[in-house]
Design a protein that fits this description.
Blueprint (H helix, E strand, L loop, with lengths): L13 H11 L6 E2 L16 H9 L14 H12 L10 E7 H16 L4 E6 L4 H8 L3 E6 L1 E2 L4 E2 L1 H8 L7 E5 L12 H13 L3 E6 L9 H4 L1 H10 L8 E6 L11 E7 L6 H15 L6 H10 L2 H33 L4 H5 L4 E3 L4 H11 L1 E2 L5 E3 L8 H11 L2
Parallel strand pairs: 1-12, 3-4, 3-7, 7-8, 8-9
Antiparallel strand pairs: 2-10, 5-6, 9-10, 11-13
Helix pairs in contact: 2-11, 2-12, 3-11, 4-5, 4-10, 6-7, 7-9, 12-15, 14-15
Bound molecules: 4'-deoxy-4'-aminopyridoxal-5'-phosphate.
Organism: Penicillium steckii
InterPro entries: Aminotransferase_I/II_large (IPR004839), Asp_trans (IPR000796), NHTrfase_class1_PyrdxlP-BS (IPR004838), PyrdxlP-dep_Trfase (IPR015424), PyrdxlP-dep_Trfase_major (IPR015421), PyrdxlP-dep_Trfase_small (IPR015422)
Pfam family, one: Aminotran_1_2
Length: 402
Amino acid sequence: SQEYLNLPVVPADTAFGIMADFEADPHPNKVPLIAGAYRDEYGKPWILPSVRMAKERLDEPTHEYLGIAGSPTFLRLAKELVFGKSVDNGQHNIESIQTVSGTGANHLAAVFLARHLRPGRVFIPNPTWVNHKSIWESVGVTVAEYPYFSPVTQQVDIGGILEALEHAEPNDVVILQACAHNPTGVDLSKSQWMQVAEMVQRKKLFAVFDSAYQGFATGDVDGDAWAVRYFAETLSKTDDAAGICVAQSFSKNFGLYGERVGALHFIAPPNFSTQGVRGHLMAIARAEYSNPPRFGASIVETVLGDETLRAQWENDLDTMSSRIQKMRGILREELEKQTEKDWSHVETQIGMFSYTGLTKEHVTQLREDFHVYLLPSGRISVCGLNEGNVEYVARAVGEVTK
Ligand code: PMP
């Protein structure tokens, strides 16, 4: 007789589910504030001019396999982008491997660390990008949360972070979002980063930076990399150096979402041989997908390796981040007109998302009565706003919060 496998129903992914509902909604005024993907002032996907120019140069791209670790040129430029031009590409104990975008970089780090560092726990922010939990659970590491955000002050809960990490054990992993924290849009200040770095060092933790918004957050690629560079400078050069890795995504800052461009940069602590790290990362990649996608990486290396294209790209980052900033300002103004409440957090938060403070009930009502779609957590993707819909959204929020 046939035995059936026990496969209980898995709940559908929340964000992708709401996006499908949005697509199916025939209402003419519907507004999508869900997806973490940039939209231009007409609500359309935007191909960065720098990316378009790079594609023209690659008029007959090759379809050959890349090596297991990916394109060496791409990796050198990707590493310089995170750590700065002064990073010593030869001697520094950084191993880099191309990945299937930021998700793949987070996953590769998790598989490697679960296997070779064997942390007791991984500490992830509460709240955070939903995939952090899934990725670490899938490699069998116990997930603990550190409180990240205080809804009362609308600020980083630095006391809560330090208190939680005080209970961590040596070799535990801590996930840190490098900038433009998803979903809150609230980042640590420099002095708060220094406190966390000191804690990571003292408790001998392994820091995994998730860098998905470099340059997209503020338009300034170096400013957005400050925390990563501070950790790399101060923690990796001492005798009892902490291990650090950076999961780098090019989805948002190049608008290459579907091309899956990313890298994992691994700064080995003294008890890890750099060669060993490289070999094992490649062995995992080989067994999982053999070699990374080529096309998107060739676009990124063409842009970053050419002065003119790179200048255009920085311009493009400015176009995206300033449009978002402008929408934040207008949304705040309109909300304050509608509700006579303080909505300054909408303007001061950075990056793609805003944690509005709207409740689940507000979110349901916004969707049912106004066809405005956002996540149940109250997170909106500011990219979905434009001059054609921002007043409508503010009026809708005004109605549901009356
Ligand atoms: N980390 C964070 C914090 C993110 O917000 C995202 C994208 N939503 C990612 C990683 C990964 O995205 P991708 O796999 O497209 O690079």
